[in-house]
């Protein structure tokens, strides 16, 4: 391996930069050439001259960003820019999501973007990629985060819906319009009733229908009546909570599907009646298992509990550090009220879960 003057990937004020190729990965400021991991707004931003992304993500970013110049590449398809090799690999985060592998002069880095290890039946399942340096999110990088299997969570969601219907109430469940919403739609039990959707979710789901199967849904419009909706379920983005839009749903019961529902305080802050722990990100064990599977010695922690998680990795013998980015992870699901833990609270969660190490 030839010695290079600068790292293969550098963290700059515009984003993660590969100087050897003159290209950025998920940049947060406008650049000439951007390689995009997935369609969430914190990773795929407007203003770049050229976008390169996984094939299934291309229509998603076009829908979100409008008239852009985007090129789609298949999983495991190698493409070169200035003799630097790039390829996309399944991240399991949401439909269309990908890890980005970068290889140059015998050195391999992998940028995960966002990822999860549980197969949700919609996104192509996560695949560990061997590398020298692994750039990982750690949105839920505390032992307190331990996900219940998806099938159990959806059993609880559908039971909740059936109980609400028996009481003559409409069920409203909040989830991010790209990813979480489609995961909810796929596994809601339509034998209980009809699925209604907020316009933002229906618009995105129409795009997703061109990529994978989605159940029948009904868009809520000005003409939709309270009587039509009663007893059924409504899937809406978190921003709809507390808005005038949901007044026509009365009487209703609300729920949120998010990893943050692990903490009761998150549900109270959002004035949500019910919380279901369902995340499109790795839990604590998922992160650790993924890192081990890469064989990487160097780990760079970006968004989430970066300081706590990277320190734990160093204790396990990894060369781990943190870098600042403008990625939000699942904080966007809490709108303008992100859940944070103080350093002391983070320590408490680490110490109370030593048995999980």
Automatic annotation (TrEMBL):
Residues 327-357 are annotated as: Disordered. Keywords: Exonuclease, Hydrolase, Ligase, Nuclease. Residues 344-357 have a biased composition (Basic and acidic residues). GO terms for molecular function: exonuclease activity; ligase activity. InterPro entries: MBL, RibonucZ/Hydroxyglut_hydro, Xnuc_lig_assoc. It comes from the Bacteria. NCBIfam families: Xnuc_lig_assoc. This is Ligase-associated DNA damage response exonuclease. The lineage of its organism: Bacteria, Pseudomonadati, Bacteroidota, Flavobacteriia, Flavobacteriales.
């Amino acid at each position: 391996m030839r010695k290079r003057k600068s790292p293969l990937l550098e963290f700059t004020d515009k984003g993660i930069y590969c100087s050897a190729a003159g290209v950025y990965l998920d940049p947060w400021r406008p650049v000439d050439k951007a390689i995009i991991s997935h369609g969430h707004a914190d990773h795929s931003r407007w203003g770049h001259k050229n976008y390169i992304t996984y094939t299934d993500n291309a229509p998603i970013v076009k829908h979100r960003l409008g008239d852009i110049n985007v090129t789609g590449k298949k999983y495991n398809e190698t493409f070169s820019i200035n003799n630097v090799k790039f390829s996309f690999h399944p991240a399991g985060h949401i439909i269309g999501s990908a890890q980005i592998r970068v290889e140059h002069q015998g050195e391999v880095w992998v940028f995960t973007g966002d990822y999860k290890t549980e197969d949700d039946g919609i996104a192509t399942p996560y695949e560990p990629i061997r590398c020298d340096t692994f750039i990982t999110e750690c949105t839920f990088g505390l032992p307190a985060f331990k996900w219940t299997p998806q099938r159990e969570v959806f059993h609880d969601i559908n039971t909740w819906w059936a109980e609400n219907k028996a009481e003559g109430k409409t069920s409203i469940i909040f989830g991010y319009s790209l990813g979480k919403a489609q995961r909810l739609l796929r596994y809601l039990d339509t034998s209980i009733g009809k699925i209604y959707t907020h316009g933002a979710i229906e618009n995105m789901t129409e795009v997703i229908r061109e990529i994978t199967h989605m159940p029948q849904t009904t868009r809520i419009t000005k003409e939709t009546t309270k009587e039509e909706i009663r007893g059924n379920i409504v899937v809406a983005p978190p921003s709809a909570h507390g808005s005038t839009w949901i007044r026509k749903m009365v009487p209703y019961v609300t729920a949120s599907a998010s990893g943050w529902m692990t903490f009761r305080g998150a549900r109270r802050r959002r004035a949500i009646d019910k919380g279901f722990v369902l995340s499109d990100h790795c839990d604590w064990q998922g992160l650790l298992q993924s890192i081990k599977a890469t064989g990487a010695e160097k780990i760079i922690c970006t968004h989430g509990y970066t300081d706590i998680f990277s320190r734990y990795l160093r204790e396990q013998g990894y060369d781990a550090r943190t870098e600042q980015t403008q990625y939000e992870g699942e904080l966007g699901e809490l709108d303008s009220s992100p859940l944070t833990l103080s350093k002391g609270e983070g320590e408490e969660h680490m110490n109370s879960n030593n048995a999980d190490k």
